[in-house]
Amino acid sequence: MADSGAGSPFAAFSLAGRVALVTGASGVLGRHFARVLHGAGACVAMGARKPAALRGLAEELGEGARAVALDVTEDASIADALAVTERAFGPVDILVNNAGIATTRPFLDHTAEDWDQVMAVDLRGAFAVGQAVAKRMVAAGKGGSIVNIASILAERVIPGVAGYSAAKAALVHLTRQMAVELARHRIRVNALAPGYIATEINRDFFASEAGQAMVKRIPQRRLGSVDDLTGPLLLLASEAGAHMTGSVVTIDGGHSVNAL
């Protein structure tokens, strides 16, 4: 941005003086979200079950970045992570509910354990962290922004991920419920719904014949990149999106509106 001064239209995107918590920060998306928020001026707590995996990123970002131990399936861990964050930076203004897992297995082979594990992280975890942070936001009286990371699979499905698709669909509806109930406290709750994002995890699949066929069904004829999520995240996290709550922002190159 050429001009980010107080009189600039871009000033609303600044996160200077804000405190953010990113869950699932050791993953590809989580690391990117942490970099974006920190780059926009926020102090960032990066939560992961194994915070040692984030030591390098914390050193890279420097002042205003900290890795914290956080297991979103454990209420005590959530409380401890928030306490550590508050001692380091102050109350959380921005939450990115990014922690998530998926089990890939045909529906007929999907086990109850598979289902419970995915729901515990992707849905209950988002609920538990969101509620804990929202309570602190209400107590602080300054409002805030919660961004839940959903997926286009909340609206459309592919074989083999029954639990994940169901959890993300529920998360979208939870986002709307939270938005309605928390608006009077000046807490905005929105969701990002990424399509297929290129990472080192899926690179081999998308290089295969089946993967290339899937890419051809995306109207833009390409996978997304983590950089495609930067603008939407900043919009929802900052005052630039001050009148947005209960929204689901889809970033998928037109995939979800394609009938093919």
UniProtKB/TrEMBL annotation:
Q: Which Pfam families match?
A: adh_short_C2
What name does UniProt use for this protein?
A: NAD(P)-dependent dehydrogenase, short-chain alcohol dehydrogenase family
Give the family, as the similarity comment puts it. Belongs to the short-chain dehydrogenases/reductases (SDR) family.
Q: Which InterPro entries match?
A: NAD(P)-bd_dom_sf, Sc_DH/Rdtase_CS, SDR_fam
Query: Sorted alphabetically, which PROSITE patterns does this protein's record hold?
Result: ADH_SHORT
Q: Which domain of life is it from?
A: Bacteria
Q: Which GO terms describe its biological process?
A: fatty acid biosynthetic process
Query: Which keywords has UniProt assigned to this entry?
Result: Oxidoreductase
Q: Which organism is it from?
A: Falsiroseomonas stagni DSM 19981
Annotated signal sequence is: none
Q: Give one GO molecular function term.
A: oxidoreductase activity, acting on the CH-OH group of donors, NAD or NADP as acceptor
Kindly give the Gene3D superfamilies that the UniProt entry links to this protein: NAD(P)-binding Rossmann-like Domain
